[in-house]
Structure formats: C-alpha cells, structure tokens
Write a structure and sequence with these properties.
Blueprint: E1 4-9, E2 17-23, E3 29-35, E4 45-47, E5 64-69, E6 72-79, E7 91-97, E8 101-106, E9 113-117, E10 122-126
Antiparallel strand pairs: 1-2, 2-3, 3-4, 5-6, 6-7, 7-8, 9-10
Amino acid sequence: MTAVTALFDPAMPDETSISLFSNTSMAQLTVALKNSNDGPDPDGKSFGPSASDYKGFIAQPSQLASGSFRGFRVVVAATVPRTVEGGPTTNQISIVSPVYQGLASNRLENKKVAVSNSDTSAWVYFLE
C-alpha cells in the first residue's frame, strides 16, 4: 500500500511549491513537485528510483510523515534495518529524506508514524 505525505514551502514565489512524497513497491522514496494552484500542473517534476536500482528500506506497508525542524524539512517512516544474518527482529523509525538517519527501534508490526513541529522543536510519534 502506498503511503504519502506532503510538505508545503511558503518561501516559494506565489506559494506554489508542494513536495509530495510516496513510497514504491520496492520500498524506496519518490517525490513529485506540485503546484498548489488549481488546474493543470505543466511544470510538475518527479524524482524516484529506476527499475534497476537496489531495493529500499521503507517497511511495507508503512506510513510516511513529514515536518520541519528549525526550517529543515524531513520525511519520517518505519524502516527495516539491515541485518548480517537472518531477518530483522525490529523496525526502525527513521528520517528517510533528505538523508537517512535511524531515530529509534520499534516492533515489526508497528509501522505507524506521525510528526509534529513548532517554530523551535519537532516531535516524532510512533508505537513501540
């Protein structure tokens, strides 16, 4: 199941920039740049993996959440950590964009995540 989250950039001219993030069936992240105005979006661009890229690390199914920390926009998801042998025994809650960083561990069945932020702080919520 595809998860989506959107980030709005009020600093863009005419307040027209929306970044729409989603996960793929290969557990990778994609982003589409959208126009917030009504009507067609002739300049819409999207970025994502190709069919020959490595499999990703976003847990399937998962939720995506987004927010901002001191103006730094992040996307968070449940991810599957790499293991040396065997399968994973836990998931991680991780920043998946613009860089990957594990934040915490949780049980395999818990893949729900939410982000909230203020002007000076950000919080990531998830079930352990």
